Amino acid sequence: MSFENYLCLEASAGSGKTFALSVRYIALLLRGNHPNKILALTFTNKAASEMLQRITTTFCNLHKDEQKGELEALCELLEMDAKKVLAIRDEMMGRFLASELKISTFDSFFGTILRQFSLNLGLMPDFSSVEDNSELINNEFNKLIIANSMVKDVARYLYDTNNTESDFFNKLKSISQSKLSQFNTTVPSPKNALQKYYQLCDIALRLHSNTNYNKNFDKNLTLEDIAKKAIVNKYTNKYFDKVRDNLEFISARDEFIQAFKEYYLALEKYEISQISKFVKLYKKAIANVNNRENSLSFDDITNWVNELLTNKNSQDIDMLYFRLDAKIRHILIDEFQDTSIKQYEILEPLIAESVAGVGQSGLGSFFYVGDTKQSIYRFRGGQKELFNKLRDSFSQIKSQSLDKNYRSDKLVVEYINDLFRSKYTNYIDQIPNSKNEGYVKVVKFEKDKHLEQILNNINELTQAGVAHEDIAILCWKNKDIDNIKNFLEPKGIAVSTQIINLLIKSANVAAVVEFAKYCIFGDEIYALATQEIIQSKKGRLELKTNTSVAQTLKFIAKYLEINPYDIDMLKLYEISASYSDIYDF
To answer: I want to staple 337 with a disulfide (CB 3.0 to 4.6 A). Which of 129, 148, 384, 502 is the partner?
Structure first.
């Protein structure tokens, strides 16, 4: 397999995409490219850190047995023997170690762009990045609403649209990131939709008397209630079978559904028209917070960069991209299925330059990898459709796929193939690398019977020789975790939970922190709080300031007879590393 300059790699989970990306990056280096001309992007700091570590480890240890797979892949990619590849690596080692690799998140890369061109937007280049500043923006917006005598307008909007304040701010945030012009329309009346529903009720109740069926036809319901009924969203239910072929019923339902849709489309249009009145003030609130705090959220950074590179006159845009492209010749993007439209708009001209052949900075290359089945950033605007759109937009980009799964056993891989084959056009079956059969079981159960089913599954696995330590139970809510734990432990099954929650809610952490406060401040309330948790009274200690915070916390844990290596305590030590001493903590 020779080196393709412009490549889209489709890679399912466990198929070796991280391996492929790191080999591609090193191949670019061994082809004589300077590290500062190569940009690799991913979505999280963790992924960027892992990518950096993988590339560095592979490059430096390419001659060792543990990197044999990577060396063989590089030989094939570069069409060289191992001796030649290692000789080039050795020549480049000094430059590699002395260079700072451009491996970062989208947010970090866009922040770098914004700092270079911030003065074009009236921003200070030393701004700080924060993950979320929505609370500050919402408070600033409320002040602007009062100052502009628009409180009644907001109240009217919330009343007419039945939105909560939280809904209102979420929609404001979303719409403020689009290019929406203000427009006006009137609030729609639900009268026609309700009238059609009443006509449907009269017909439906004459035709059938099933209890569940009749619950769908109640003239006391509001449109919001009707929307939740099976007559709207679960028309496949069996109790509709008796009327499904009745022409009078079908006609009445079709008329109701049409009126129902028309009302909600008009209501959505009205909502947008009303909220568009507030968008200008919301954008002003964002700008005020950005300037006052000299800090920008990740969304702010992306929006400002998008504004910078898409809203100026073409001459300015060309100049800005020219300055950027002069520093970047090769682009690699991981998890491209999670790219948002705004991120795509920013990157597209850089990608176009990379695939254009010999550009201003020489012959470039472009490589992106991902899997539309693994799109998880919809909540941040990720659009999996962009994965294929990019490939369709540039005919130069070739496609390859990784079809071998190195992570999962045979039955797991086959189950995934069966599940997705009918859901994706041109789905490529994965081939299991493992010779083990594996285990897959899908169970449906009656409502509130899940606890018994979990216990049955655990017992089945135990009888098959699986240790309890090798069984994990994943839940949607912390409450579910507590319920399962409380159900299983009386049955003799020990459960260790890792709840993604405020760390201080851990009893062990709370005890250690409360006791630290008692030692520092001397207030008995902290001693009592500790005693309540550990059910034991402990005397006050004098804490040393010349040891690390983690050591002090570990010492307190041992003194309180708490396991100092409990998972929550380990997290606490990690957090404490950013503090200078226990008093600062």
So the answer is: 384
How far CA 70 is from CA of 21, 26, 57, 61, 430, in Å, comes to: 11, 10, 11, 10, 21
Q: Is the dihedral of CA 217, 223, 226, 231 positive or negative?
A: positive
- Please report, for the chain, the start and end positions of each structural domain, with discontinuous segments joined by +: 6-107+302-402, 129-293, 404-435, 441-500, 503-576
Q: What is the distance of C-alpha 279 from the center of its chain? A: 26
- Residue 58: name the closest of 45, 47, 72, 48 by CA: 72
Angstrom CA distances, 341 to 138, 286, 302, 376, stand at 25, 21, 11, 15
Orientation of helix 17-30 relative to helix 45-60, angle to 10°: 50
What H or E segment, with its residue span, contains residue 311?
Answer: none
How many helices (H) and strands (E) in the chain? Answer: 24, 12
Cα dist from 253 to 90, 191, 231, 245, whole Å = 75, 16, 8, 12
Q: In what order do the strands lie in the sheet with 102-105?
A: 102-105, 38-42, 330-333, 365-370, 6-11, 398-402
The two tokens of residue 558 are: 């041992």
Give CA 576 to chain center in angstroms: 26
pLDDT digits (tens, 9 = 90+) for 385-432: 888 888 888 888 998 888 898 889 999 999 999 988 888 877 888 999
Strands (E), 52-111: 102-105
Q: Each residue of 476-533: pLDDT tens digit?
A: 777 788 889 889 989 988 887 765 456 777 788 989 999 999 988 888 888 888 988 8
CA max distance for the chain = 87
Q: Which residues contact 85 (CB under 8 A, 6 or more apart)?
A: 30, 62, 71, 74, 75, 78
Q: Are 334 and 374 in contact (CB under 8 A)?
A: no
Close Cβ partners of 386 (under 8 Å, ≥ 6 residues apart): 336, 337, 339, 341, 344
Q: Which CATH class is domain 6-107+302-402?
A: alpha beta
Q: Which secondary structure element, helix H or strand E, spans residue 510, and what is its range?
A: helix 507-521
Model confidence pTM above 0.85? no
Neighbours of 146 (CB within 10 A): 11
Ranges of residues in the chain whose predicted pLDDT is under 70: 1-2, 178-182, 310-326, 357-362, 377-381, 498-502
Is 165 in contact with 158 (CB distance < 8 Å)?
Answer: yes
Alpha helices of 294-441 — where are they, by DSSP H?
A: 298-310, 314-325, 341-354, 385-393, 410-421
DSSP one-letter code for 369: E
CA distances from 103 to 25, 52, 352, 355 (A): 10, 6, 20, 20
Residues 335 and 374: beta-carbon distance below 8 Å: yes
Q: Which residues pair with 333 in a beta bridge?
A: 41, 368
Beta bridge partners of 6: 366
